[in-house]
Amino acid sequence: MKKILLLFVFWQSCIFAQKNNELLVLSAVVKDKVIPNAQIIFQKNGETSETVNTDASGKAVIPPQFVDANNEITLIIKKEGYSTLVTKGPFGGLTYALSPVMEDLDGMRIVLSWGKSPSDLDSHLSYPNNHICYYHKEGTNANLDVDDTDSFGPETITIEKRAQNKKYIYAVHDYSDKNRMDNDNLSNISNAKVYVYIGNTLIKSYDVPKYKKGTVWVVFMIDESGNIIDINNFENSASWEGVRSLLSNYRSSSTPSNSITENNRQTAFDINKQGENLYHSGRMEQAVNYYQQALEYNPFDGQIYSNLGLAFSKIGRNAEAIWANREAIKFAADNTIKANSYYNIAKIYENSGQFSEALYYYGLAKENKENPVYDKAILRVKSKMR
């Protein structure tokens, strides 16, 4: 059972309560650590952006025109040493958490934030022989960094090093309403958001789906190959043990749709071409930005992910490059893209001295397409392992 000291909670709420025209920026991994002097940028297409900074208490006043912002407004929060956070409105009265940059190639950080009600949402991560949540905060190469019980979050789970060939499932439990099965508070009033970070980059974000009933939001799965699979289903459970049981052998009842409009497909194609031009002219950071924009219009294009992976590699963001190449493999239209992506992953592991992983991925490249380059790479890595 959670033990909450009411006076402490009241003291905390007094310190961190913010008005509807303010937002608060905290560390994702240190409980209640505020982030001063974070740069906050408000953007709307076709209009001039506006920038404010957080004060010594981690708060920032939202420019009046953005107080009641809808999802047409983009919020960007930057701070040296932290991953840049990008999200959509509304913003007023909410708390945002910045993730410190991670170094491990197979690390991942999952950050949950929400609104005032329900006051207590819990993060859960299930994987073989482990279940991370407020009751069990530490597991094999993963831990719950921050547990929040008094609204807003963050709740943060860090995977220090993801295990190969093992499945992970992440879910959010409405602890406040745990005994009210099929209620819709988690879906309709929590404003819950989940941010997924790899290396120095926010690579996925999820807004809680509306008009759903249930106390458990099963957000996503990381499959045995390291691919992130969206789930976004709602279930019911009254306890952490129930969530553990639910997730331990979870099978999604829905099939994700990969359909997009032809207009979005063409827009993504055009933006990707601009990214390729930037890549070939050596402007890698800009190329990354264009590839990421293209994926907003078509998140199912293996070639764009492959391009993004190459650009990430060129600027030394290797953990992100591995993720992008895995996404390329997942959506690849032909074996050439798959083979290239496996080869690119293998090169990163080889260069970091992780030879067994490198050999595994060079082998997968060869399985998808014969190439003397892959044969030479396999022999080279084997010689390094002697």
Cα-atom Rg, whole angstroms?
21 Å
Total number of beta strands: 18
As residue ranges, the low-confidence spans are 3-17
- Give the CA-based shape: globular
Note the gap between the termini: 52 Å
Which strand-content bin applies to the residues?
A: 15-25%
Q: Element order, helices and strands? A: HEEEEEEEEEEEEEEHEEEEHHHHHHHH
Question: Would you mind describing this structure in some detail?
Answer:
With 386 residues, the protein is α+β, with helices and mostly antiparallel strands. Helix content is 33%, strand content 24%. The chain has helices at 6-16, 185-188, 240-248, 262-280, 284-297, 302-314, 318-331, 335-351, 355-368, 372-384, and strands spanning 22-27, 39-43, 50-53, 59-61, 74-78, 85-88, 95-98, 108-113, 121-127, 130-132, 138-139, 142-146, 155-159, 168-174, 193-198, 201-207, 216-222, 228-235. The protein has a six-stranded antiparallel sheet. A five-stranded antiparallel sheet has the order 10-9-14-17-18. Helix 5 (284-297) packs antiparallel against helix 6 (302-314), helix 6 (302-314) packs parallel to helix 8 (335-351) and helix 8 (335-351) runs antiparallel to helix 9. It is globular and about 60 Å long. Mean pLDDT is 89; it is low at 3-17.
